[in-house]
Amino acid sequence: MVPDQRIHEHPAASADWLRAARAARTLSLITLVWLGVESVLGLAAGLTAHSVALIGWGLSALVEAAASLIVVWRFTGARTLSPHAESTARRAVAVSFWLLAPYLIVHVAHDLDAGHRAAPSALGIVVTAVSLAGMPVLGLAKRRLGRRLASAATSGEGTQNLMCAAMAAGVLAGLYLNTLGLWWVDPAVAVLLAAVAAREGLRAWAGHACCH
Taken in order 23, 28, 29, 31, is the CA torsion positive or negative? Predict the structure, then answer.
């Protein structure tokens, strides 16, 4: 069905809305590729440096990738104009937030018990710095699109991108401060991110993400 026909059958779906839907899908596809590379490099750097926050950040890239895949699914084919598809995608994005929180808490507890301390990693610094520079651009664009589309799923994915950038900043700070003896910053960043993920999951489930 061509866009004009869909607009005729669904008057609420303007040409501008359909363009925004295509933009959301395109940004999510770009993000999928980005996060695939980011996750592999982040996990490699985190395991080498024994950084809880860096490992958690690398795993969060996989969770974000799941959210991106959900948004691509949401705005593909007949689902583009389906309220049911939006509801399903919104809840799936909420679950993707909740996948991250338990892992971070368990990993923090394990590393504290084992006495692991984060060590500086050149690869980790480069990867997180690139994420810190690029993810806010994607995140803010998706949140704007989420408001235009009234799509909590799209806004939730954007929030995950912003969380990725915030965690990258925390990881960079943690790795540096660890050299000054402030080893607790790294696990503290991971615990804080777990709390934020749990909260944002609740907001996405309730459908509030597109309204803020």
Answer: positive
CA distances to 104, 177, 185 from 115, in Å: 16, 17, 14
Tokens of 128: 């997180």
Report pLDDT for 151.
92
> CA-CA distance, 162 to 145, in Å (whole number)?
14
b or e along 187-204 (b: 16 or more beta carbons within 10 Å of the residue's beta carbon)? bbbbbebbebbbebbebb
What pLDDT shows up at residue 117? 65
End-to-end Cα spacing for the chain: 33
Mean pLDDT, rounded, for 3-32:
76
**Which amino acid is located at 73 in the chain?**
W
Report d(CA 20, CA 25) in Å as an integer: 9
Tokens representing 183 are 């080893």
Q: What are the angstrom distances between the C-alpha of 82 and each of 6, 37, 129?
A: 11, 32, 38
Q: Tens of pLDDT along 65-97?
A: 999 999 999 999 999 989 899 999 999 999 988
